[in-house]
Amino acid sequence: MNSQASLLTQVEGGIAAITLNRPEQRNALDIPTLKALHALLNELNASAQVRVVILSGQGKGFCAGADLAEWAAAEARGELESYGWTETAHALMSRLHSLDKPTIAAINGMALGAGMDLALCCDFRIAAASARFKAGYTSMAYSPDAGASWHLPRLIGSEQAKRLLFLDQPWGAERALAAGLVGELCADDQLLAVAGELAARLAAGPTFAFAQTKTLIREGAQRTLAAQLEAELAAGLLCGRSEDGAEALRAAMEKRTPHFIGR
């Protein structure tokens, strides 16, 4: 287990487990944490030893969003618009959303504001029974600033997104599951085990093809069907020429389970 003050990281069996480690601040995201997480994601994305990433929070909550103490200090200095939190958060959210490796958010307790947005950037969201989701923006007379206005309509539809953002009431894990905000619900004491099982299954899969699929899904919303079909053709050629593609064909012919290496 490696420690970087506000983050804990462990890599084992192709799975990188990142834990936000500011429990006394409810894992709030100050600028140093945002930058450290961004740098860590770059490192993990470039590592051949990492095939899947799990993100979780230390203690009783997943993430309380922006660090209000840092925010208030910037306001007191007259630097609220220039101290750089939003730009730094945007860079992190973009990096997480565009990561080549599959990502899993294991959500315990509260995911508030940018903490909820962090989970929304992941490919898979597993909620513990204790999980709570709250936008937090309009209660502070603020509009979304870390991706919620982009992710939520796509995940849960426009009206449900507006209910979550405008009314700003906490959603429990069951409501989040019913709305499609998360894909799986489990007992609190099973959260990391359930996330680990999904991660292990993904890590054993054709991660090169997963990366191509993630890119197709991410970029497809801006394309016509004809353009998307062209993109699928190009991605398919890359997959077919990959070592995993050759291994999949051999395994099918030999009637055995393929062994994928992510290339």
Description:
Keywords: Lyase. Pfam families: ECH_1. This protein is an alpha/beta fold and 263 residues long. It folds into two domains: 2-203, Alpha-Beta Complex (2-enoyl-CoA Hydratase, Chain A, domain 1), CATH 3.90.226; 207-254. The protein has eleven helices and ten strands. The protein has a seven-stranded mixed β-sheet with strand order 1-2-3-4-5-7-10, sandwiched between helices. It has a three-stranded mixed β-sheet with strand order 6-8-9. A hairpin with a 2-residue loop joins strand 2 and strand 3. The two termini are 27 Å apart.
Order of strands across the biggest sheet?
1-2-3-4-5-7-10
Chain-averaged pLDDT: 92
Q: How large is the share of residues in beta strands?
A: 15-25%
Q: In the residues, how many domains can be counted?
A: 2
The Rg value, from CA coordinates, equals 19 Å
- CATH C-level category of the largest domain: Alpha Beta
Order of helices and strands: EEEHEHHEEHEEHHEHEHHHH
**How many helical stretches?**
11
Large-scale geometry: globular
Report the CATH superfamily of the largest domain: 2-enoyl-CoA Hydratase, Chain A, domain 1
Low-pLDDT runs: none
Which descriptors apply to this entry?
263 residues, alpha/beta, 2-enoyl-CoA Hydratase, Chain A, domain 1, 3-stranded mixed beta sheet, globular
Q: Could you give a short description of this structure?
A:
This protein is of the alpha/beta class. It has helices at 31-46, 68-76, 85-97, 114-120, 148-156, 158-167, 173-179, 191-203, 207-220, 225-241, 243-254, and strands at 2-3, 7-12, 15-20, 52-57, 103-107, 110-112, 124-128, 132-134, 171-172, 184-186.
